[in-house]
Structure formats: structure tokens, C-alpha cells
Amino acid sequence: MTSLVPLIDTFRGGTLECRHFGAVAVVDTQGKLVAQAGDPHWVSFSRSALKALQALPFVRGGGPKLFNFTPENVALMCSSHSGEPMHVTQVQAMLDKANVPAKALQCGCHMPYYVEAGIAPPPDVIDERHNNCSGKHAGFLAHCVQHGWPLNNYLAPAHSLQQAIRRDVARVVGMESDALKLGIDGCSAPNFAMPLSALARGYARLASGAADSEFGESFVQLAEAMTSHPDLVSGSARSDQAFMRAGRGDWVTKAGADGIQAVGSKSRGQAFVVKISDGNKMAVQAATVAVLDQLGWLDARQKDELRAWRFEAIANAKGTRVGERKSAFTLERPR
Asked: How many CB atoms lie within 10 A of CB 248?
């Protein structure tokens, strides 16, 4: 933990109340370090920031074309969606195209995010399709159908699907597959811990918009689906939707649970990853905007569009401003 630095501070009545530690890594497509705060190679689980890379074997193997998956379907494979009707509709369409029943999904069930956010009341029936990871799992199942692999244990780390994902994730982030540290995510799928710089390199390649010597047009297909349909990658009033809309097609972004955020820029051939060690959502979102600002990626309009995601004002239940949230770091450039 000594490799982490203060990223976001909160003040109440002018007195420091909370300090959120973390690290930032900014790299290019070759993995060259461009800027940092704290240890850019700090190892952290990628959580849902991994989803677009988990889709690589399916996309590279022609799965979307075989099953007639639309760009909207591909966006759902990369999503942590809110379980809104538009999301559930896309997930069901993917299952139908692969001829797989919804009960085959092994992601579990939880209250849809849009209900937790108070956007609308819950539906009459809540099932696995409302899980924020159901799009990823629908893609997993389609991949298994494509290759004739068993569906009942598709989440087992030793399953051919998960071995293919581990192989491609390692290749895209520039690591050996056995160097990826294995853990199980909230949706029961295998997930990997890796240096922040490695995940950032994966996002720099994902966002590049160019044909890749290893993965062909896969990055283009995934990135264009995400940037064209940010509402499907996240949902109403969600950060990834706001970030990608502000990016106007240039930024590919994906948040993950427990304080991780990845952002890649197509025009710059660079990406960064932010990790907040205590997992605070507002802190990681505020830090992400601060990194965008310090890197010079924001014009005046984008600064205005993302102002709310800095969460600068802290208000009480009456709406009275009682404190402030401020950036506490300055990016350092390699010497």
C-alpha cells in the first residue's frame, strides 16, 4: 500500500475528512509509460473493466457474424448494464440467436441498477437477464455453442472458453498467461489481477481503431460498438455513458467494481487506468475526470459536460453545501 498516493480528498468545514489513496497509469499501445501517479504497476483486479477483453476470443473467431450479433449486441457483451428494458431486450436477443435459454445464464440475479438508483420501480419479474453482467455471459454461452463446448460449466477456470479468454487477455496486455492472478468476480466468472499499466496497454490497443497484427479488426468492432452505444455499455445516468458521450467517439471507457476505471483514446493511441484502493465510486469518477484534465484531453465543452462527475460539492440532506471534494495529485512524467 506504500505505492499508493492520495488521489482525492474530501473536506468538511474546511477540515480534511477523508483521503482516498490510489494509483494511475498512463501508457501507449506498446506499453510505454507516459505518466503516472503512485505506482503505475500496482497489481489490482480488473473487475468489469476486463469485459471488452474477455470478448476478444468470440469476436476474433467470427462469433458476432456467425450469430448475426448487431453492434448493440456486441456492446452488451462489454457492459455492466443497469438492467433497464433496453438492456434486457438485447440480452434476450443474443440468447435467442444462439438458441440458448435464459436459465443457462450462471451470473446470478440481483436488483437492477436502475431500480437501486430510483429511476423507475422494479419489473414484475427479476431474473438473471437483469444482472449487470448478463450480456457478457450471453456472449460466453454463444461462444460455447459456436465451438460445441459444454454449457453447464462454462465458468470453470479450466473450461476451454475460460482458457481461450485467459490466453487472449494475456496477449493483449503483454503478459504471460500464467502471470495473470486468478480470482472470481461478482458474477462468478474468472477475473484477473494485473499491473495497472498492463490493463491500460490493453485499453490503448482496444481504442486504437486500427487493424492489429494479432487480433485483426476485433478491436475496431468492440470499440465502435461501445462508443456508438454507451447507453448499452452502462445505462441511464451512469458514468461510462457520460464519459463516452463526452469523448465523441474518441474515448473507450469501462468502469469496474471496487474503484477501477479504464479510458482509452483512439486519436492519441494512449490509455489510462485509475484505481482507488478503498473502492469509492465518487472518488474514482472524480479522479478519472482529473486525469483527463491533467492530460489535456478535455476541451471547454467536455470540461463542462463532465463537471458533475467531479462531485466537487458535498451537500447534506437539505441540499446545503457542507464540504468539498478535491483532486490531491499531479501526474508525473517519466524522466
From this structure: 12
CA angle 106, 110, 111 (to 5 degrees): 150
> CB neighbours of 194 closer than 8 A, spacing ≥ 6?
43, 44, 46, 173, 175, 179, 180, 181
Distance CA 329, CA 335 (A): 18
Mean per-residue pLDDT pooled into runs of 10, the chain (335 residues): 89 97 97 97 98 98 98 98 98 98 98 94 95 98 98 98 98 98 98 98 93 89 98 97 98 98 98 98 98 98 98 96 98 90
The CATH class that applies to domain 5-327 reads: alpha beta
Cross-sheet strand order for the sheet of 190-195: 43-45, 190-195, 181-184
Q: What pTM was estimated for this model as a whole?
A: 0.97
Query: CA-to-CA distance for 23 and 37, rounded, in angstroms?
Result: 5
